[in-house]
Automatic annotation (TrEMBL):
Pfam families: Tail_P2_I. InterPro entries: Tail_protein_I, Unchr_phage_tail-like. This is Phage tail protein.
Amino acid sequence: MPRGTKFFMFNNREDWCYKNVLSGVNFEDDSLVFDFNSDKNSAFISISLDSFEKETVWHRIRFDSEVSRNSKIKVSILASDEHDFWLNLDGDINFTNLNNFLLNKNVDVGSKLSIFSKLSHVSFENPVDMPLFKLKGRYLWVCIEAISYDSSSIIKIRSMKIEFPHNNFIEYLPEIYQRSGEDSFFSRFIAIFQSMYDDLDDKIDFIPANFEPLNNSYDFLKWISRWLGIRDVDVWREDKLRDMVSNAIEIFKTKGTIKSIKLMVEKFIGVEPIVIEQFKVTENEFYVREKKIIDSLFGDNSFVFNVFLNENNIKTSEDYANLLHIIRDMSPAGTVCNLVILQNGIFLGHHCYIGINSFLTREKYSLISKKINNEEGITMID
């Protein structure tokens, strides 16, 4: 975007709703979605957008929208240095503040659309990128009317960007080209290339934002994830994948260590696991005496490591397979990973870890009277 260019951006719910006229619309995330199942006119009308400078020449308006077949959007735009207009209201012509008229809840939306269509200076159908340099005035109003011939049609506007003041590449050309004037064929022709250049310039300016995991699109996030070496990105929940990519540097600079494996598991399921390496178990003084049992639990060679999680953290066999695959991607070459799911209980010959699948508590127990049937009869024991 050329230096000095300003803009109004509508790309979230607060922008669309703030003191504007909305009728027959819904919201999908931050997108404006027109609803054709109601008996209301489907429309959006903005109150005046203030450039803070009289006789501002507006530059262009851009839409990121989705319009299905058998439907269209009609965009009407008005510019003026004043808020007051002569309006014909039910046969009475009055000098009226346009903002007050638009925000008047006693006036139906159909009447507002009718008045606006008479006042507007330019109108477009299904616009994508339209020049506005014919419009001059401090204030700008935008009216979007959705029209459909099928109730199942979809019209969604993800963003609307209005740029000002007008700038033209002709200003950078020799004087002979500048004489052609703003509304000449050459000026309109060169505006095509200017628009392409400005769009490319915007993309370059916002490259850092595109690579920000918390802000970029989900499709781009998955591409970045694969580029970072995260396989099977579809098994990750979107919020966890964003968190994972945000911490990728910390994780991957220690790849192949217990620290990175713990971090990866915690990002995937939200719980830090216990990781025990077999060669460290053999250093325990009880290993020689209990070698057979320890080898059955922790492996019989020094290249085995075990990742322990509670059964509450892994719900399905699919979750188990996905997590095991993720751990193996982070494991050093030649090592063997055992992903052990601990059941809630103590079982002889199985793993038992206090705080994971067994707990120490302080509780008072009272001996309950029991009846024991023996050869001599029934005896009561307290």
